[in-house]
């Protein structure tokens, strides 16, 4: 009698939209879902800090090849910024580095500071971040006692709306809703708002409400997924996230072998290519007069 363990049937390829709990790293979520889904081929699109909760898009099996493209889509957040206290991580998980009363800050001053941080801006990432400096993560250098100097980079904050202002003694808590491009640090917005107002600031609450087309309404908790692991099929996920191009059988054969198609002027970004029967064939992008394959999914 063979003692070899029977191979588990791999799960279908697709996306899982998780409502990440506070205190978990994104890697913690991936590890848990590997057990729930029964496969090692699991990854996530866009890291969430342990303090943050909300939408984390996870790919299973072949859908892991979508993640790099999904990570570049627009994101939405609900946040609370505390004015009057600065930390070394720009959020509540760090050590307090300075305090300055924010009692004098007016609602009009907050609105002016928020407006200056809206639109196309140059943002310096937090020192405690995963950005690499000379091949090593910035947070590792900082925790080793080094001073890290990070360059500013362009990001787009398409909406930064103050939803409430709460005052208690020397601190002011600003609740806000933010819509922004990939690579934007909400912690850095908190830091920069506090700096502009002369009080310092840091993030005390962060909940991601949307990644591209996937929002909290589609998200499930770890407990819900353990009871019923809902996986959005690849074709449905691509159709929701990217422009769609339907092709003929002849064109499908070309795409299936990584070949090029004439461009149709769809603009920048990935395009999902579907065969005559609705099968997802590939992700492509238009480069000049032709398409270029980003990922091919047919056998």
Key features of this structure:
single chain, 299 residues, alpha+beta, Pseudouridine synthase, Archaeosine Trna-guanine Transglycosylase, Chain: A, domain 4, ten-stranded mixed beta sheet, 22% helix, 36% strand, globular, tRNA pseudouridine synthase B, tRNA pseudouridine(55) synthase activity, isomerase
Mean pLDDT: 90
The name of the CATH superfamily of the largest domain reads Pseudouridine synthase
Share of residues in strands: 35-45%
How much helicity do the residues have?
10-25%
Total domain count: 3
Class per helix and strand makeup: alpha+beta
Rg, rounded, reads 22 Å
Descriptive notes:
- The protein has 299 residues and is α+β, with helices and mostly antiparallel strands.
- It folds into three domains: 14-73 and 212-233, 2-Layer Sandwich (Pseudouridine synthase), CATH 3.30.2350; 75-208, 2-Layer Sandwich (Pseudouridine synthase), CATH 3.30.2350.10; 242-296, Archaeosine Trna-guanine Transglycosylase, Chain: A, domain 4.
- The protein is built from eight helices and 18 strands.
- Strands 1, 2, 3, 4, 7, 10, 11, 12, 13 and 14 form a ten-stranded mixed β-sheet that branches. A four-stranded mixed β-sheet has the order 15-16-17-18. The protein has a two-stranded antiparallel ribbon with strand order 5-6.
- A hairpin with a 2-residue loop joins strand 12 (201-211) and strand 13 (214-215).
- This is tRNA pseudouridine synthase B.
- Residues 242-297 form the tRNA pseudouridine synthase II TruB subfamily 2 C-terminal domain.
- One of its GO terms (molecular function) is RNA binding.
- It catalyses: uridine(55) in tRNA = pseudouridine(55) in tRNA.
């Amino acid at each position: 009698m063979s003692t070899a363990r029977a191979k588990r049937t791999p799960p279908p390829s697709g996306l899982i939209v998780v409502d990440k709990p506070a205190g978990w790293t994104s890697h913690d979520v991936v590890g848990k879902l590997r057990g729930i889904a029964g496969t090692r081929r699991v990854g996530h699109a866009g890291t969430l800090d342990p303090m943050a909760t909300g939408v984390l898009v996870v790919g299973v099996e072949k859908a892991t090849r979508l993640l790099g493209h999904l990570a570049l889509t627009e994101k939405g957040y609900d946040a609370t910024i505390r004015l009057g206290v600065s930390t070394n991580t720009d959020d509540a998980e760090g050590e307090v580095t300075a305090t300055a009363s924010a009692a004098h800050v007016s609602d009009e001053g907050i609105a002016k500071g928020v407006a200056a941080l809206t639109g196309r801006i140059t943002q310096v990432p937090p020192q405690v971040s995963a950005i690499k400096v000379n091949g090593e993560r910035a947070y590792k250098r900082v925790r080793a006692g080094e001073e890290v100097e990070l360059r500013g980079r362009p990001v787009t904050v398409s909406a930064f709306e103050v939803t409430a202002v709460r005052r208690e003694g020397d601190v002011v808590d600003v609740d806000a809703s933010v819509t922004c491009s990939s690579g934007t640090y909400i912690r850095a917005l908190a830091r920069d708002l506090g700096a502009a107002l002369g009080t310092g600031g840091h993030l005390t609450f962060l909940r991601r409400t949307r990644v591209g087309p996937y929002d909290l309404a589609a998200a499930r908790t770890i407990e819900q997924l353990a009871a019923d692991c809902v996986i959005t099929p690849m074709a449905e996920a691509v159709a929701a996230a990217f422009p769609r191009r339907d092709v003929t059988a002849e064109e499908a054969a070309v795409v299936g072998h990584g070949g090029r198609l004439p461009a149709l002027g769809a603009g920048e970004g990935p395009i999902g290519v579907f065969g005559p029967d609705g099968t997802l064939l590939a992700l492509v992008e238009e480069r000049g007069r032709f398409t270029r394959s980003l990922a091919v999914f047919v056998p």
